[in-house]
Amino acid sequence: MSGTLRLQTEFENRYLYPSKVGAGILYKKGYILTNAHVVSDSFEVPSGSTRVKHWVVGKVVANFYGGVQCDAEVLSVNVGKDVALLKIPESVIKPSNIPCVFSKDVPGRGDKVFVVGHPHGVPFNVKYGHVSNPSRPLSDIRAFVQNGFPHSFEYMDPDMTFLEIDVTAAKGSSGGPISTAEGSVFGVLHAGIEGTACYGIPVAIIKRAVRRMLNRSRSPGYDVFCHLN
Fold first, then answer.
1. Quick check: 229 pLDDT over 50?
2. What is the reported pTM?
């Protein structure tokens, strides 16, 4: 709980982009991990006979459990993996705010997991459930979900796999940790499908995406948005 944050995203054009609430994880000192769709949005503009998609990031305010609040800078966004990396001042981080520890183990079917999020705005809500499938392909999800397919899946890389859990998570929980009882993180919650399951980004995918985003953010003139694997 001490390493989980509440993120509020506001966009310059509030008529086009409504505000968003999601969760974030303290990654390393000064860095936060969350979903790309928590801190960004897209719009389409005509270009000849087609429409071109453009992405924008919002202004993010981060809240720690206990009330500490600060602005968070969006450093890099990987749309295809739905991962975003943010930066906050190290001065606001207390010794009790412990960065996440990624699990070295791949979860098995039936393993108990805990999810921290802010469903419908309720702050720092904890739920628990079990792993249904540690590696569910996106193609499988598309095949068996006929209605209510989340908008956030639309831009994911087609070869993505997800950590499938039986936890019920509502809007406001995206970006929260999926962890063991000891706090080791298996993944980051992506989205839930009503009456089906919830899906998270596995740790292995997050690690690769973050390494690339950290390297890119150190390059002068880099683009915040990274659509690559």
1. no
2. 0.87
